[in-house]
């Protein structure tokens, strides 16, 4: 199973955002420490998801970074991504594991110990836990759980916990103190005036340095 980087970048395909440019900037700094989770808007076609994911796999591979596809596991298989990530309204974790096979990375969303334990038992390689803080990136999210909520999940499971939701470099230390293995961001990079600098700041907060191979 591929190693899991500590900085996860979720693609932002909203109007006015350039996911490819953001990924390029982050990869140039983070290299193998970066995991790119390809997420598209709900109304995007499978072809659009396939085209975006394929381009990102091509960018990640020479840099030694990991590409996962959120929700659309058939796209993950089609582009030879390292795996996928499923949320609460996607395929159940056990079904997702059957689709991807035993060796793929599989992330699952959780916000409490019970859900987290079920996801791990069903085959999740890591957990995306949150939202940690309030965020406007995605509609319909539940109330933030804060670092304390992250800590409760960490204590319950033995797989890496990736904190997500309103994450900034300034908030990373509190999440690491709660036991998070890493963090996932959207707007902190896609909305940054200088995504490379923002990536550097996030890596520094994580206590990591990138080691790009290209």
- CATH architecture, by name, is Alpha-Beta Barrel
Compute the number of structural domains.
1
The CATH topology is: TIM Barrel
Q: What characteristic shape results from the CA principal axes?
A: globular
Strand content: 15-25%
Class by helix and strand content? alpha/beta
Tell me the helix content.
40-55%
The profile of the biggest β sheet is: 8 strands, parallel, barrel
Low-confidence spans: none
The value of Rg in angstroms is 16 Å
Distance between the termini: 23 Å
CATH superfamily: Aldolase class I
Number of strands: 8
Strand order of the largest sheet: 1-2-3-4-5-6-7-8
Give the helices and strands as they follow along the chain.
EHEHEHEHEHEHEHEHH
Which whole number gives the mean pLDDT?
Answer: 94
What is the CATH class designation?
Alpha Beta
Number of helices: 9
Organism: Micromonospora pisi
InterPro entries: Aldolase_TIM, ThiamineP_synth_sf, ThiamineP_synth_TenI, TMP_synthase
Binding site for Mg(2+): 71, 90
Binding site for 2-[(2R,5Z)-2-carboxy-4-methylthiazol-5(2H)-ylidene]ethyl phosphate: 135-137, 166
Describe the structure.
The protein is 40% helix and 17% strand. The protein has an eight-stranded parallel barrel, surrounded by six helices. Helix 6 links the parallel strand 6 and strand 7. The two termini are 23 Å apart. One of its GO terms (molecular function) is magnesium ion binding. It comes from Micromonospora pisi. Keywords: Magnesium, Metal-binding, Thiamine biosynthesis, Transferase. Its cofactor is Mg(2+).
């Amino acid at each position: 199973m591929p190693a899991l980087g500590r900085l996860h970048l979720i693609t932002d395909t909203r109007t006015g955002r350039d996911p490819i440019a953001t990924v390029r900037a982050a990869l140039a700094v983070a290299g193998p420490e970066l995991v790119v989770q390809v997420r598209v808007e709900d109304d995007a076609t499978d072809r659009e998801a396939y085209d975006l994911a394929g381009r990102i796999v091509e960018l990640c591979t020479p840099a030694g970074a990991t590409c996962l596809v959120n929700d659309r596991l058939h796209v993950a298989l089609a582009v030879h991504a390292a795996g996928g990530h499923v949320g609460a309204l996607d395929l159940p974790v056990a079904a997702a594991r059957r689709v991807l096979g035993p060796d793929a990375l599989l992330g699952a969303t959780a916000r409490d110990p019970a859900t987290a334990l079920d996801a791990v038992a069903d085959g999740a390689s890591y957990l995306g836990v949150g939202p940690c803080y309030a965020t406007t990136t995605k509609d319909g999210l539940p109330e933030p759980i804060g670092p304390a909520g992250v800590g409760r999940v960490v204590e319950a499971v033995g797989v890496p916990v990736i904190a997500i939701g309103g994450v900034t470099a300034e908030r990373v230390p509190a999440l690491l103190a709660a036991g998070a293995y890493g963090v996932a961001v959207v707007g902190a990079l896609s909305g940054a005036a200088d995504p490379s600098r923002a990536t550097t700041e996030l890596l520094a907060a994580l206590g990591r340095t990138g080691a790009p191979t290209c």
